[in-house]
Write the structure tokens for this entry.
Amino acid sequence: MPALSATPLVSGRVFSVEAVRDTPIVARRLEDRFEGSFELDGPEGPRLVAIRGAVDRIDLLADGSLRIIDYKSSAPQKPVQLAIYAVTAEQRLRGLRGRTWKAGEVAYLIFGAPRGLKPLVRRPSDLPAVLVDAQFRVLAAVAAIEAGQFPPRPVYTHLCASCAYHPLCRGGCKVVTAHLDPDGNMARPDPECPKVIEWRRQHPADAPRRSSALRVV
């Protein structure tokens, strides 16, 4: 199956975005993978955080701004990830072509949506505040992880409905948050869940089957 960024539908949507923008593109970075330590600003000052990710598309524009686009099949509920992509892009591209690049247009390109492009903010003047808020949220999450706090916060709660382990965990397992098994199957129960471990210990030959296949969209 071809990469999402390589499909004709995505290319057509991206070209239509470029057609209505006046600022020329001086360089494009596609499926831009990165890994390193980045400085995030928080209430107690800046802190270095190790971050790894991949940005679907970054356009470097002639005016020194960055157009950062993330391809999605549906609109995300919590767009912190894209904001952090913008923060890290500014830092790691600093000095490229002898310039200091600043995030300008930050948006999702959404399949199936009538307009396709969904900006991170309604007004460009709101972007700095959104980027600051995202950094605060990430640093708060890092602090909670370091303190050993892992409260259940399922993002896609509808996935719990068809999970056979739901009566055990009552939602919140990492199947619907962060867990991915080696095969990338988010429908598989979280092996680190204490309730799942205990159930399997008591029923070694009788693991339940899911009532229906889970599908992440």
Summary: Residues 1-6, 175-182, 208-217 have pLDDT under 50 and may be disordered. The helical segments are 8-19, 80-92, 127-146, 166-169, 194-202. The beta strands are 25-42, 45-61, 65-72, 102-110, 117-119.
